[in-house]
Amino acid sequence: MAGLETTGSNPDVGLLYDINGLAATAPDWVDRVVLFAGEYGLILALVLLTLWTWWRVRRTACREEAAGAVAAVVWAPLAAGIALLVNIPIRGFVGRPRPAEQHRGVEELLAGRTDFSFVSDHATLAMALAVGLFIAHRRAGLAGIALAALLGFSRVYLGVHYPTDVIGGLALGTAVALLLSPLASALLTPLTKLIARSATVGRLVWSPKGTRDEAVSVEDEPGQEQAQGRERQQEDGVRQESGAVGVSRRRDRDLAA
Hints:
Layout: H1 11-20, H2 22-25, H3 28-57, H4 63-94, H5 99-102, H6 121-136, H7 138-157, H8 163-179, H9 181-196, H10 212-220, H11 223-256
């Protein structure tokens, strides 16, 4: 199945020439920026977005909600790893050569790629991460999906993938992240809930704004606040009684005088 798209009249190949052709007219610095972004930069941005999402979701006031969201964040990189493993037999079965091996005029800015082209590992990894983040945090997920789309475009611009390689990678990453998410949540959420209750590593899962120890004590001991209120009432009563005694003593001194 090596010859999926080999003719210039095919829309897939035509779009490849259109996008990759931009590299021929773009300044050298643009090519260098796209090269760095497409190979490392956008993946690094997704990793940083994942860390930011973890930091954000653990700050929620509800411990149960934080545990579920952190479990979804943990699932995002796991989904990316599983999607890459699933892609290994797909690449071997399809056996599609790189575009520059089959088409003249393709400017391959990232040389040395000798493995198969379908589907794109970069697009698969990026989209699995993005969809996993979307489950945990909608805005972070949308930002991740935009980064994954840019990454896919850059791979075609660099001449190392066909557009359908990227589309296949985006679809594979989405499918793995979504279809296995219920199972991952069932396995990871009890673990994150257990960690959240820990006095030593609980902040990895739940660290609401303010003092976490105070939040834990109020949630775990609902009667403590009432006890503190009773103590304050008793203290107020003692102060009132002391004040009354002081007034009585002054009155007695005035009468004696």
